[in-house]
Amino acid sequence: MIDNASIESLKNNIDIVDVIGNFIELRKAGANYKANCPFHGEKTPSFVVSPSKQIYHCFGCGVGGDSIKFVMELEKLSYPESIEKLASMYNFSLSYSKGSSDYSDAKRVLETIQTWYVKNLENNDTAKQYLLSRGVSQNSIEHFGIGYVPEGASVMHFLNATLLPMPKAMEAGIIAQGENGGFYARLVERITFPIFSASGSVVGFGGRTISNHPAKYINSPQTKLFNKSRLLYGYNLAKESIYKNKKLIVCEGYLDVVMFHQAGFTEAVASMGTALTPEHLPLLRKGEPKVILAYDGDKAGVAAALKAAQMLAIANFDGGVVLFPDGQDPADLIAKGESEAVAKLLREAKPLIPFVLEKLIYSYDLNDPRAKEAAFGTARQFLEGLSQIIKDAYIPMAATLLGVAPALFGGQTQPSRARESFSQRKDDIAQLSILKTLLEKPELIDSVLDVIDVNMFGGYAGLFSALINGESEQPQVRSLAVDESLQVMNEEELQSVLRNFLIRHYDIKLKDIVADRDMPFSKKSFLIRKIKADIIPRLKKGELVVYETNW
Ligand code: ZN
């Protein structure tokens, strides 16, 4: 169990803006930060992070909470696992009341097995020969910690001999459990490429077969420590150059990364087994580098490059695309001693937006008017995702490629309207200001409850109830807490707003009474007189009159 005091101390040492900023891109918006919500698909940011309250809230899907909750939800971790993840992110030492951390056990397995893999390579000529034939130098083998995993029985024997606990080895993704309950090694007879987290600890492995297994490459499975879709292979070794040279090369495979580094292009990284996704953007953005996509020129490579280039362009990255011709990959070219040719290709990378426009538009037969129309639609849709200035700069190019007038793209586009936070609805401001004030100054709740009724808050009745009950986790309460546009009133201002609120409600009530066909005439005239001649004048004079609900 993690010691409570150390959890508190961790909480005090982390800032939610920094924590969330490690996973998604945050933009400053007034006192808060905004982002596109990572929990539901959206194009306009309704995800708000409040540094003053140390909470996040999504106005779109209602999720929210503190730093720990964010990590739990995003990484699908339990509470203690999230604490451990945050502690490891911030190099914070947790103390445990008894037993040891699950996390550190899995880490120990990974480190021990990595050392063993490296040693195995020295004793395996076939594996060494393969690496040499691909041009990988001894220096690179050591630099990247490349190793070899033998047949399954050896792996199990090693784990047993070193007394590494099987459940922990399973947690680390080294072994899996078969249908009969027995354990088996996930990677066998493969060259291993250790995958490091950005902070430099081994979190998983990529394995390349040398025994003609049909799956050329296999990766460790997604584990608590290893999130494939957020990590980039080689990043730990490339980081310094990325920051220094403001450049980052994304290539397709482990060997490409190794060979790029060997040839001096030390900014190279690769996504693992998957295409580049929005989840990679925060890591790519670090250090504000220019991002060069260096992909194979085959059909799959071009399609992957187009997708990645579109995503990067829309996310406002600077960068370009290099497609390696004739089915060659960068690793082969470098192995053949053609580093200079690779350097030239990188220098001549096609900028992202022109690359996307050409690929999108030329995938259609522009001689066919219908296809041309579709090409126009696709190009316009892409341009709409860019900022106004960038878009305007590229309209002439798109028009030229399509052979249409630039005016076709012009003017009629609607500026995308950010989702309204509910405070922007004018008629609700009075109610929300009352509730915001009560949230910040709960000592005023009793005096307000004396004169009004929860049901007077219509659509906000649920929010009001939650607030009275102190449910700070309720989504509406959270959105109110992060809404900096609402003013917190002093007691005098609150009373004045309350009086106006009551007057409005009595006005509505008056209309209801007049329209009520079932109410006896005598009662009707009594109530109308009471409201008009007694209640409203008293309210206007400054008295807080209790709202009558039982008429
Ligand atoms: Zn959301």
Describe this structure in words.
This protein folds into 4 domains: 86 residues, Alpha-Beta Complex (DNA Primase, Chain A); 124 residues, DNA primase, catalytic core, N-terminal domain (DNA primase DNAg catalytic core, N-terminal domain), CATH 3.90.980; 118 residues, Dna Topoisomerase Vi A Subunit, Chain: A, domain 2 (3-Layer(aba) Sandwich), CATH 3.40.1360.10; 182 residues, DNAb Helicase, Chain A (Orthogonal Bundle). The strands form 4 sheets. It has a 5-stranded antiparallel β-sheet with strand order 1-2-3-4-5, sandwiched between helices. A 5-stranded mixed β-sheet has the order 13-12-14-15-16. It is 49% helix and 12% strand. The two termini are 57 Å apart. The chain has 551 residues and is an alpha+beta fold. The radius of gyration is 31 Å and the shape is globular. It is built from 24 helices and 16 strands. α16 runs antiparallel to α17 and α23 packs antiparallel against α24. A hairpin with a 4-residue loop joins β3 and β4. The structure holds zinc ion.
Tags for this model:
alpha+beta; Dna Topoisomerase Vi A Subunit, Chain: A, domain 2; 24 helices; DNA primase DNAg catalytic core, N-terminal domain; 551 residues; 5-stranded mixed beta sheet; binds zinc ion; 4 domains; DNA Primase, Chain A; 5-stranded antiparallel beta sheet
